[in-house]
Design brief:
6-stranded mixed sheet; disordered N terminus; globular; 153 residues; 3 helices; 8 strands; Nuclear Transport Factor 2, Chain: A
């Protein structure tokens, strides 16, 4: 295989072969397709697949309270997580749409992940709120906030 890497361009239903210098720039048609693409891209732990899915003005608040603003800062935070957590599996469930419009969408969902940190199996879960915008004829993440699942009473 040499320098080539087989990747799925998010969840666009086809595999393409790229060198490590090429990013995937397919257009995402709707918010539902974005969710599948984002979930798949995060699961690859490859920033080059996540990057086209986030706006230049993106902000992410992690469940530990840290806030990252701007694509460059988000890249650093995500790549740090990708480096720390090996063999990560990420899943989305229980999606609840709050608003879907022609240019923006807001949704809540639960997430689960497993992986290996420092040689030990780890896992986590939580709830996420995400805002998407239609930018350059494709759907992108504008902001998301990760939190812990509320305790049921």
């Amino acid at each position: 295989m040499g320098n080539n890497l087989y990747i799925a361009c998010a969840v666009f239903g086809r595999q393409t072969q790229h060198t490590r210098d090429v990013t995937c720039n397919l257009k995402i048609k709707n918010p539902e397709e974005f969710i599948k693409s984002y979930e798949t891209a995060l699961g690859t732990q490859d920033w080059k697949l996540v990057k086209p899915l986030v706006s230049e003005n993106v902000s992410v608040t992690f469940s530990d309270g840290t806030i990252h603003i701007g694509k460059e800062n988000i890249q650093k935070a995500f790549e740090r997580n990708f480096h720390t957590t090996k063999n990560e599996k990420y899943a989305v469930e229980n999606i609840k749409w709050l608003v879907k419009d022609k240019k923006y969408a807001v949704y809540l969902f639960e997430f689960n992940w497993t992986g290996i940190i420092n040689g030990k199996p780890v896992s986590g879960n939580g709830i996420r709120t995400s805002v998407l915008i239609k930018e350059d004829a494709t759907w992108k993440l504008l902001t998301e906030h990760l939190g812990r699942k509320p305790k049921r009473i």
